Amino acid sequence: MKRLLLLAFLALQFSCKTSETHKVEDQKIRGEIGEHAMVVSAREEASKIGLSMLLQGGNAFDAMVATEMALAVSYPFAGNLGGGGFMVYRKANGETGALDYREKAPLKASRNMYLDEEGNAVPERSQVGELAVGVPGTVAGIFAVHEKFGSLPMEQILEPVIALAQNGFVISENQQKTLEAYQEMFIKVNKDTILFAGNFSAGDTLRNVQLARTLERLAQNGKKEFYEGKTAEILVDYLKERGGIISLEDLSSYEAVWRKPIEIDYQGYSVISMSPPSSGGIVMGQILKMIEPYDIEKFGHNSLKTIQVITEAERRAYADRSFYLGDPDFVDIPTQFLTSVEYLHNRMKDFTFEHATPSSEIDHGNIPGYESMETTHYSIVDQQGNAVSVTTTLNGAYGSKLYVEELGFFLNNEMDDFSAKPGEPNMFGLLGAEANAIEPGKRMLSSMTPTIVEKDGKLFMVLGSPGGSTIITSVMQTILNVVEFDMGMQEAVNAPRFHHQWYPDEVVFEPKLFDKELLDSLRSKGYQVNERNSRILGKVDAILRLPNGSLEGGADRRGDDTAVGY
Ligand code: DON
To answer: pLDDT, tens digit, for every residue of 440-490?
Structure first.
């Protein structure tokens, strides 16, 4: 057994290079290929630690816990203990489900907490510092997964993660850039220097001894450590001192929730994705159903007609998102109606290829009787065929920028995902209404879209992305690239992307990747074209099951993302 593990470990050392391309029989350009299992995440260390669980005989759920925590160490930009996320899974026997470990509004939160005396929204209050922080869900999430599906002891899973925090990880060029960019803000928000405000260069090793200690306590004491134990006390004292409102009661009453995922049939594929409080599954499902009657395969990938149909479907779906969607424990969501074929086909009735429909002419659809940047994704398939798709976040880069030095982690600014005021855009330009208004103990609406696709009742694809409001459209385009445009996984992830979300009334294109003529044709039809440099349209990490049963990883070239398989 030991020899087998050693061999597997050596194979792993040689097999995993970021976005390395392989050719298999079909001559497509392929990403990392694994015959048995695959982990794709935002960091090589995290993908390797995830895969090491599988090599030790663990399953995809053990690998989920390990990868989630390894990202918290090596990708503090978005990986976290102080944030939250969602997992969609599909077991080898075909059983599917979802876990919601989204942050919640503190019990002392109130509807108008981000408005000034004149009633205007003050974005900094929901985006930076103590009031921006939602009650963290990540630790409850990993323990819920472990309790229900884990097969290795928690100590064994956390061991390499603790070692990574103790021994350090190597800072990449991308990380150097973001750390530099936020250095001043870290010091301003924390009113002091913090570990991550140091002057780091790419290639330096960053050790986080405090985080190692926190993880050790978690390994010893379990979930209680974070929600009721020493860690809870340190966290609440830290926030109270700064005028924050999260209490011990908020922490002790936090629970991750098992939910039923959204399932949509698209061209015979079953697309399984996150249900509310994420908008991901419903909105992506609506868009897919609205474009289904159009032959986009024939129109061609990123062609004028394909972009028009998708944009117009997105416009209508995001208008519904803004009105109807919120935490299902607080608002009634007419999911069945919103995802029904009749409703959605009717919604596209006023679409024409002649010209753009102005967003001002689109409102949410009418339902009879209805009243009422930074994230990271990883995908795992294990040797038994279990699949997990997880998106986790602090919301903005390094969340609220508040760093609890004694515990070694950043705190989220997820409160900005609520609608601070009807009609007032949040940091992703998303509008919200009553359904997503702030209420004590409520979960803020998300766009995270961890997804699993089945073909003929079998596992086909696992994928997801960061990118705020652009997550949904990035995930959807990646699915279409494979099922409509016959791309391999890496190719589908690499392909240029575009995005529309109702308001602002513009279509955002990845810079310099789209033909000038195509963009001019769209302009002449009345589309506002935006080719901003700074905007990231997702960073998709995905796995595709190939016809011969092996797995192809697609690690997004837009980051340090890495696929490792065996
Ligand atoms: O839950 C959401 O939709 C957002 N908090 C996600 C933020 C995000 O993806 C930032 N990444 N670029």
So the answer is: 999 999 999 999 999 999 999 999 999 999 999 999 999 999 999 999 999
Catalytic residue among 138, 311, 357, 375: 375
Residue nearest to atom 2 of ligand 1 (CA): 446
The residue whose two tokens read 């960019």 is: 181
Separation of CA 325 and ligand 1 centre (Å): 16
393 lines ligand 1 (CB under 6 A): yes
Distance between CA atoms of 164 and 154, rounded to whole angstroms?
Answer: 16
Using one digit for the tens of pLDDT, what is the confidence trace for 207-241?
A: 999 999 999 999 999 999 999 999 999 999 999 99
Residue among 275, 447, 465, 541 whose CB has most ligand 1 atoms within 8 A, to mutate:
447
Residue 443, C-beta contacts closer than 8 angstroms, at least 6 positions apart: 100, 102, 103, 104, 105, 277, 327, 329, 330
Distances, alpha carbon 303 to alpha carbons 35, 68, 309, 427, in Å: 35, 37, 10, 30
pLDDT 10s digits, 250-306 = 999 999 999 999 999 999 999 999 999 999 999 999 999 999 999 999 999 999 999
Q: What is the value of pTM for the model shown?
A: 0.93
SS (H, E, C) 312-369: HHHHHHHHHHHHHCCCCCCCCCCHHHHCCHHHHHHHCCCCCCCCCCCHHHCCCCCCCC
Q: What angle do CA 37, 70, 167 make, to 5 degrees?
A: 120
Q: Which residues pair with 553 in a beta bridge?
A: 543
Nearest to 492 by CA among 504, 480, 502, 503: 480
Over residues 368-378, mean pLDDT: 71
Give distance in angstroms: CA of 396 to centre of ligand 1: 7
Phi, psi (deg, nearest 5) at residue 439: -145, 145
